[in-house]
Amino acid sequence: MGASNNIIAVxxxxxxxxxxxxxxxxxxxxxxxxxxxxxxxxxALRCLKNGTGSDDEKACAAEAAxxxxxxxxxPALRDEATGRLxxxxxALPLVRRALVDYQRRFATHPPDGKGGAVIDGRDIGTVxxxxxxxxxxxxATVEERAxxxxxxxxxxxxxxxxxxxxxxxxxxxxxxTNRAVAPLARAEDALQIDTTSMDADAAFAAALRYAEKRLAxxxx
Length: 220
Ligand code: CDP
Prior knowledge:
With about 220 residues, this protein is α/β, with parallel strands linked by helices. The chain has one domain: P-loop containing nucleotide triphosphate hydrolases (Rossmann fold, 3-Layer(aba) Sandwich), CATH 3.40.50. The chain is about 55% helix and about 10% strand. Helix 1 packs across helix 10 (about 200-215) and helix 8 packs across helix 9. The radius of gyration is 17 Å and the shape is globular. It starts with 6 loop residues before the first strand and ends in a 6-residue tail after the last helix.
């Protein structure tokens, strides 16, 4: 087996439960956690604030290169409009390129002296960390994902309409899957976990069983 790194890549479509799972794995193993979607959301938010059009690839890449900690902490990152624009700027090759080094460095040199890293996204197991010791691909039907996102929005006190949430997710899936560069895809050597009829505990248990076998010896 001989795993030589403590990198866990968690990929999957929007609202599949990958963020919850990735955070939990990071807590369990004492690893650093990176939500790579925040990077693309931060690019989108900067574009919105600065009036940068998503059709101007070079300008969007400049926004990506200029991201700061302040951008990554902005509550507006989670807005639906930010997510929608994120999936547009994420299709731009120069934007993706501008964010590669940060993500790779996080994986190979986790902050705060942590012994490993968990990164979630769309292309972590395929493009960013193809060498990751553990690769998970988390899915659920689009209807189930829309229902989770809908409840999450209501829980946050937002107004939401289920058919609109469903339409938005379908659009985002299509953009993420069909883009030419680093599309959403399962790495050949990733374990797929379909969470449609699984709760968060069951998904975590399945991921943990798999990860424990593949991480460097001595990892708890
Ligand atoms: O939270 P949710 O799953 O809705 O989205 P996210 O993970 O925050 O990502 C927002 C958008 O960024 C996605 O729709 C993708 O288009 C893009 N993204 C990407 O292209 N590659 C990644 N590694 C992460 C996100």
